[in-house]
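Task: sequence design from structure.
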């Protein structure tokens, strides 16, 4: 990270609500979500080509745990892991959780985040590019990821995107308070 960088991070009180064991149920839930998405939109996973069997290590630097993701269509798997397990993956992507989520919903530009050193990427860069292009082209909403339609889809999108917006605002305020005065 660049010295003095004020990228939004979760406030300490929120980080303490998510100790390492709190992430454990996320692995099976996210695995089911990815597999369900693969059944509904297989072209997304086909677009990854050979990289859909790559192991992506996703490290939200402001949480006590990380994820490994193998986006292999209906054989996809997401695991919650210790941060020390990065060496077992093909690709490592690190950044604040709200920033990483903003990449998924298209709120922020991955290239700008990488060049400003808010996120870091190492390993097989061609796999990261394939993943980035797939995510950008997919334009998925939270409801798409959850497999919801109709009223439930609108309700989920409004609620989840609204909650993320509030969390980003809280993180922005927290970052501005901690920003060095010039």
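Answer:
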């Amino acid at each position: 990270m660049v010295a003095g960088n004020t990228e939004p991070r979760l406030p300490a009180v929120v980080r303490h609500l998510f100790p390492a064991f709190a992430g454990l149920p996320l692995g099976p839930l996210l695995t089911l979500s990815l597999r369900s998405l693969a059944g509904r939109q297989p072209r997304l996973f086909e677009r990854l080509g050979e990289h859909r069997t790559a192991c992506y290590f996703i490290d939200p630097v402001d949480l006590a745990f990380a994820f490994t993701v193998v986006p292999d269509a209906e054989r996809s798997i997401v695991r919650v892991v210790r941060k020390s397990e990065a060496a077992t993956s093909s690709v490592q992507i690190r950044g604040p959780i709200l920033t990483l989520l903003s990449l998924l919903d298209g709120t922020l530009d991955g290239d700008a985040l990488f060049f400003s050193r808010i996120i870091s990427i190492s390993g097989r860069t061609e796999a990261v590019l394939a993943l980035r292009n797939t995510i950008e082209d997919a334009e998925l909403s939270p409801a798409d990821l959850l497999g919801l339609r109709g009223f439930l889809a609108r309700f989920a999108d409004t609620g989840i995107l609204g909650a993320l917006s509030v969390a980003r605002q809280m993180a922005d305020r927290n970052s501005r308070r901690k920003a060095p005065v010039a």
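Residues 12-178 form a domain with the Nonspecific Lipid-transfer Protein; Chain A fold (CATH 3.30.1050.10).
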